[in-house]
Amino acid sequence: MNQRPENRKPNISEPTTWQFLRRSIRKADIVLFLVLLLLGIALAAASLLGRSRGAEAVIRVNGEIYGSYPLSVSRTITIRRGRHRNVVRIRNGKVFMASASCHNQICVHHKPISETNQSIVCLPNRVSVEIRAAGKEGKIDVYS
């Protein structure tokens, strides 16, 4: 009565996949999943609700502060460093990179920024623009 495995009838006592999962997932696993899910939702909400309208744009070149400009005044700032050139524009309380001498132009295609802790970075030219709230001189907040 040697039966080949192909002809063998399934054993009813073998657990199905669903039964196996049901036995291996414990209540502690479900609680852990729910805690991590709620923590993720809370962090996402805090990040979205923690943003506010910025007051100034801080421009850095090669890590050093180039200048700080209020968002309430429309202006064009041209940054020249050797062969590199970036043009930053402030209009209607928003900042954007109007042009850059870098080859990839990622910074130029970035959407205008106006909320705190938003930034535009031109890596090839080592230029960054960050939005800050009024009077925040390099202070680190919860979201930094």
Describe the structure.
The chain is α+β, with helices and mostly antiparallel strands. Helix content is 24%, strand content 31%. A hairpin with a 2-residue loop joins strand 4 and strand 5 (94-100). The longest helix has 23 residues, at 27-49.
Strand and helix layout:
Layout: H1 17-24, H2 27-49, E1 56-61, E2 64-70, E3 75-81, E4 84-91, E5 94-100, H3 106-109, E6 119-122, E7 127-132
Antiparallel strand pairs: 1-2, 1-7, 3-4, 4-5, 6-7
Quick gist of this model?
The chain crosses the membrane at residues 30-50. The protein is of the alpha+beta class.
The gross shape turns out to be: elongated
What's the total number of strands? 7
Distance from N terminus to C terminus (CA atoms, Å) equals 72 Å
Contiguous uncertain segments of 5+ residues: 140-144
User: How many distinct folded domains?
Assistant: 2
H and E string? HHEEEEEHEE
Work out the helicity level. Answer: 10-25%
Estimated structural class: alpha+beta
Can you summarize the main beta sheet?
4 strands, antiparallel
Task: Report the CATH architecture of the largest domain.
Answer: Sandwich
Strand content: 25-35%
How do the strands line up in the largest sheet? 2-1-7-6
